[in-house]
Design goal:
By secondary structure, this protein is mostly helical. It is built from 20 helices and 2 strands. The chain has one domain. The termini are far apart. This is Tripartite tricarboxylate transporter TctA family protein.
């Protein structure tokens, strides 16, 4: 009953007039920016991060929730109408949804995506509300060594999950960890890697880094690609509403996608794309119309979209309870917490329960707002897709620059924005993942603090790091996250070589 009362208190906070206004602004901004081609939820949240800088923490985080969910909804619209996934989790939606749009069934595809997202978001948010207190109770028993092991697990799993190889992910992570060293050492008071520049004494601004890597880097990448063929916009023909047959074929995939997506999103090595692929495979196997898959099966849109949004709610479990981001978007949201001096984790539930539960309750409201807004405004989102590419990315550059100036009016900050924007372009150019850099900058100082605290308690004995069964378990999971994919690749390569040898014989 405790969770019910806390969630009810959170609903009271989220239902206040200004909170509703913040949620509405968030879902509108998130959907409007997320629906643009090539812009996923992570870039959307990073781009709009400076907008919330002057707001109070509760209003800012409620707006973040709206932007986050709005960006997820917007990505499905882009995938279905333009065959342009904003992120890897939308690939499956594009696969079947765009085929439906080309067959003149873009309306039902958008409708099943929107309603499936609502159903999954509603169930997953309730799951978050009931699971979070349990995780918090477990986390309260963590010591400094356990927290350091947890950080190592986060570093390894996130680096292994992003990018084409674990080595590239770890390289990006070490770039972020190096940036986390900039500023004043909290233990000794000495300046580190500031190069005599006063602006660097407070460290690298996470907001500036996120906007530069995601927004500026993306704009420079598009500009460097040169002229491209214009995207073909598919008109939405016929009714937006689903038929009785569409409903009958969609409701089970919505529920199955939710069950698949939520736990995978909550895992440290999870990822929304894993849930969408598993959901798609399950729907194809269970469907009574397997011949339609690859040609516009509505189950192939309903299930993965539900899994995608359930996974989005699942990522908030480790983020809010342990302070660990398991996705690029969660890393940007963690930056949003930190710009107000808030550190997600078990203590936040104890010190600011009204803020945490207000945020969780606002997810329910944002979900309902998005359902009401997305179905009638399909025509508007289609017109947004017609913005010429040069105007679109010029607007992104302008908005990013103005947002950075508004948050921190300094020539040094603008130079840092440009430098990291070029870094983001270079990383995209050579295939290095972006998210581990942001995660390294955010979690690096926290991991250092826990490591030094553990060593101080043990008077410098390094064995304290492996003295706890929990810490040893976390290290073993981290090692498995790196070694298992390598072993599977080697095994697959060996199978291929044996097959070639047998063919030659």
């Amino acid at each position: 009953m405790d969770t019910f009362s806390l969630l009810a208190d959170g609903l009271m906070t989220a239902m206040q007039p200004m909170s509703l206004v913040y949620a509405l602004i968030g879902v509108l901004l998130g959907t409007a920016v997320g629906v643009l081609p090539g812009i996923g939820p992570a870039l959307t949240v990073a781009l709009l991060l400076p907008v919330t800088y002057k707001l109070d923490p509760a209003g800012s985080l409620i707006m973040f929730a709206g932007i986050y969910y709005g960006g997820m909804y917007g990505g499905s619209t882009t995938s279905i109408l333009l065959n342009t996934p904003g992120e890897s989790a939308s690939i499956i939606t594009a696969l079947e949804g765009n085929k439906m749009a080309r067959a003149g069934r873009g309306g039902p595809a958008l409708a099943t995506a929107a309603i499936g997202s609502f159903v999954a978001g509603l169930i997953a948010t309730i799951g978050l509300a009931f699971l979070a207190p349990t995780v918090v109770k477990l986390a309260i028993g963590f010591g400094p060594a356990d927290y350091f092991a947890l950080m190592v697990l986060a570093f390894v799993t996130v680096s292994a999950a992003f990018g084409s190889s674990a080595l590239m992910g770890l390289t990006s992570l070490f770039v972020g960890l190096s940036l986390g060293l900039v500023g004043i050492d909290l233990q000794t008071g000495q300046a580190r890697l500031s190069f005599g520049i006063p602006d660097f004494l407070d460290g690298i601004e996470v907001t500036t880094l996120a906007v530069a890597l995601f927004a500026i880097g993306e704009a420079l990448t598009i500009a460097a690609a040169g002229a491209r063929a214009p995207d073909k916009i598919e008109p939405v023909r016929g009714s937006v509403w689903m038929t009785a047959s569409d409903w009958a074929r969609s409701w089970k995939p919505w529920l199955r996608g939710t069950v698949i997506g939520f736990p995978i999103g909550a895992m440290p090595a999870g990822g929304a794309e894993i849930g969408t692929f598993l959901s798609y495979a399950a729907e194809k196997r269970l469907s009574k119309h397997p011949e339609e898959f690859g040609n516009g099966a509505i189950e192939g849109v309903a299930g993965p979209e539900a899994a995608n949004n359930a996974s989005a709610a699942g990522t908030l479990v480790p983020l809010l309870t342990l302070g660990l981001p398991t996705s690029a978007t969660a890393a940007i949201m963690l930056a949003g917490f930190q710009q107000f001096g808030l550190q997600p984790g078990p203590l936040l539930f104890a010190t600011r329960p009204e803020l945490v539960w207000g945020l969780i309750a606002s997810l329910l409201i944002a979900n309902l707002m998005l359902l009401v807004l997305n179905l009638p405004l399909v025509g508007l989102w289609v017109r947004l897709l017609a913005i010429p590419r040069p105007w679109l990315y010029a607007g992104i550059l302008t908005f990013s620059t103005l947002g950075t100036i508004g948050a921190n009016p300094s020539p040094v900050e603008l130079a840092v924005l440009l430098a990291f924007g070029l870094l983001g372009y270079g990383m995209r150019r050579f295939g290095y993942p972006i998210a581990p850099v942001v995660i390294g900058l955010i979690l690096g100082p926290l991991a250092e603090q826990q490591l030094r605290r553990a060593l101080a308690i043990s008077q410098g004995d390094p064995l304290v790091l492996v003295s706890s069964p929990l810490a040893i378990t976390l290290y073993l999971i981290a090692a498995a996250a790196v070694l298992l994919p390598m072993l599977m690749r080697l095994r697959g390569r060996g199978d291929v070589l044996r097959q070639i040898a047998s063919d030659e014989d």
